[in-house]
């Protein structure tokens, strides 16, 4: 299969066409067809010169993945399972918020970070998604909205699906350049959030490279002992090192960072943990917001349970009392496979019934 044309920035496509003797304006014309008119095939681009279309079709594809399964929740959340050209399955989620329509994208097939609450970590990463495969998830969801005929448009993106986006850094950056480009989907950078498990060196690189896109960091514990238990990456990148990288981001970008905190019953959800978190945030109060995430239990991790609503409330109250900007993540699609990766996990298990198949459910990011 040819590579996805969605993986090229406008500048790259322009250079590629110019090298082959085509005018600069052709690239803009093609982009218009891809992102504004949402052409599904090169042959749809009726006003583009046929020689240019032939050249493009011999090197690129517009559709590299296909929809394998779709689940729609009563609250309007739609989970898509896409099959990639090599047969791998990935999950993409459309969520409806008061402020707009948000899509959660996957960046890798599997994940190497191995957070203990997330079954995705049990299945090692088999490969990174290309920039085009990440963009195509947005395009497929947009096409779904187009077909519904309500004129709705994807307005927000969260890079929080399966995979560690900073472990696929170059493709992530290209993806961000494509979806934010004013001549393409033109999604506002401030409407995009990238979530990392805390790859410190990449937080520095991100601070240097992408000034406008929001950053969220999965913290999940206020001290090293607990965080190492929950996220083994903390052994390599302990909290002090992570906070140094966050401080660099805050100083450089002067943008708030979101600290994500998944609440696990009797593990990290006590008021004393909340107090420790307040201490850790310290004088970063003005620049940090905490997002509390109620845990979605999955079969693979029976050691973790969902915090009681009273514990969530008490945790929230401690943070608020100490002036920390804090929210509890709203849940979407609770009547369908709610945990991230759950739909994919179930499908893989079905496909390989009888064979050993590690689970894949549930990132909190
Ligand atoms: S939570 Fe995210 S980073 Fe951690 S194992 Fe799951 S997919 Fe990977």
UniProtKB/TrEMBL annotation:
Catalytic-site annotation from UniProt: 91 (proton acceptor), 340 (s-methylcysteine intermediate)
Cofactor(s), by name: [4Fe-4S] cluster
First and last residue of the signal peptide: none
Radical SAM core domain location: 97-335
Entry keyword Disulfide bond: yes
Enzyme class, UniProt record, top EC level: transferase
Binding site for [4Fe-4S] cluster: 111, 115, 118
Residues binding S-adenosyl-L-methionine, per UniProt: 163-164, 195, 218-220, 296
Chief location of this protein within or outside the cell: cytoplasm
Entries under Pfam families matching the protein: Radical_SAM, RlmN_N
GO terms, molecular function: methyltransferase activity
Catalytically driven reaction(s): adenosine(2503) in 23S rRNA + 2 reduced [2Fe-2S]-[ferredoxin] + 2 S-adenosyl-L-methionine = 2-methyladenosine(2503) in 23S rRNA + 5'-deoxyadenosine + L-methionine + 2 oxidized [2Fe-2S]-[ferredoxin] + S-adenosyl-L-homocysteine; adenosine(37) in tRNA + 2 reduced [2Fe-2S]-[ferredoxin] + 2 S-adenosyl-L-methionine = 2-methyladenosine(37) in tRNA + 5'-deoxyadenosine + L-methionine + 2 oxidized [2Fe-2S]-[ferredoxin] + S-adenosyl-L-homocysteine
This enzyme's EC code(s): 2.1.1.192
Keyword Mitochondrion listed: no
Cofactor binding, per record: Binds 1 [4Fe-4S] cluster. The cluster is coordinated with 3 cysteines and an exchangeable S-adenosyl-L-methionine.
Location of this chain's protein in the cell: Cytoplasm
Annotated InterPro entries: Aldolase_TIM, Methyltransferase_A, RlmN_N, RNA_MTrfase_RlmN, rRNA_lsu_MTrfase_RlmN/Cfr, rSAM, rSAM_sf
Role this protein plays: Specifically methylates position 2 of adenine 2503 in 23S rRNA and position 2 of adenine 37 in tRNAs.
More details: Reaction proceeds by a ping-pong mechanism involving intermediate methylation of a conserved cysteine residue.
Family to which this protein belongs: Belongs to the radical SAM superfamily. RlmN family.
HAMAP family: RNA_methyltr_RlmN
Name listed for the protein in its UniProt record: Probable dual-specificity RNA methyltransferase RlmN
Gene designation per UniProt: rlmN
